[in-house]
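Our consortium's second objective concerns turning raw sequence data into structural hypotheses that experimental partners can test. To show how far this objective has progressed, the report includes one record in full. It was chosen at random from the queue rather than selected for favorable results. The single chain below, 414 residues long, was entered without modification.
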Amino acid sequence: MTVEERVDHRFKGLPPDADGLTVTELAAQRRNLFTGGFTTPVLALSAERLEHNLRLMETYSERHGLAFAPHGKTSMAPQLFQRQIEHGAWGITLAVPHQVRVARAFGTRRVFLANELVDPAALRWISAELDSDPGFRLVCYVDSVRGVELMDAALRGATRPLDVVVELAAGDGARTGVRTEAECAAVADAVAAVPTLRLVGVAGYEGEVPNADPERVHAWLRRLVSLAVAFDKDGRFAGTDEIVVSAGGSAWFDAVADVFAEIPELSLPVLKLLRSGAYVSHDDGHYREITPFNRVPQEGALEPAFRLWTQVVSRPSPEQAFANAGKRDAAYDLHLPFAQVVRRAGVERPADGIEVTGLSDQHAWLRTGPEADLEVGDWLGLGLSHPCTSFDKWQLIPVAEADGTVVDYIRTYF
């Protein structure tokens, strides 16, 4: 999206009388989320909490000597990619070719592709991007000899080799990745045998460690570091100028910081690349429960930045009510939304005695206790769980300050 894209029916929750305005023009009006014509349901991001989270992870990465490539699939919002980079991120992690195309369309210069890529059309496009832009860098997983063969076949004739890292699986039953160190060496040998790829490091995802706990996660991370050390000793990184060692979802980045601090001196500088992505918005459910800051509160705390505003449209009994937001609007794959605040006549108060018990396509089912003061027409603010499936339901998201003033709009591209 450019700032000149015009607001229209594509963007739910926005004021109907804003149709035809550019996003820049609408943002300049600084409308109030509650009195400026926005319709429910509408998802909003807190301006203050976004900035807090960006600054916190920037500080955390610097403190622990980590480079940072937050996973962009969380938001698929190039505006947030840019803000993450402005807050010190090395680049952006992505998962599939479409996401890389979005990032490149908005000028992202460094991409870590946390997947083995074997689609020939996508590989040819990436190769053309690399050849046309000397400042563009992409690092991609490899996790099989067959994958190396397919990548090499698609990339023949490329001017620049594609940088790859061998993905070490987090254990038996984990998702992708090479299961044993011997198989990792075989994949590395396959990379060395082709001119189209360049081995630059090792990587993996500790969030897939079976029955994850601090001991098991630390043990797997030390396996990853040992693999990098062994590859370096064998001269496998001779063709690069730095060694990439990468891990780090949003649940165990404290363990990554611990173990990466133990990486010994190698023959080349080491890029210790953390990839946690959910921090940017955090949440009121899953990530609030699993964030490493619960274990290291002295390092700070992330703040949930999402709130879904919905409106009570039915109050059929003292024990039940319905609001006009459902599965089309709210994440529900990890937890149902959480009733947080009720807003009536400009006054906001806690949503005491109100619980979301289910979602239909367009309705939230509410259980209301004796203490619940809730009327048809009230605005109900819901906290959400799982940023990845919250962002993807909204194409244009207002960013509001604490008093409700909307200062920006975040465009997503899923």
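The partners drew two points from this record. Residues 181 and 227 are 7 Å apart (CA to CA). The mean pLDDT is 97. Both points have been shared with the crystallography group to help prioritize constructs.
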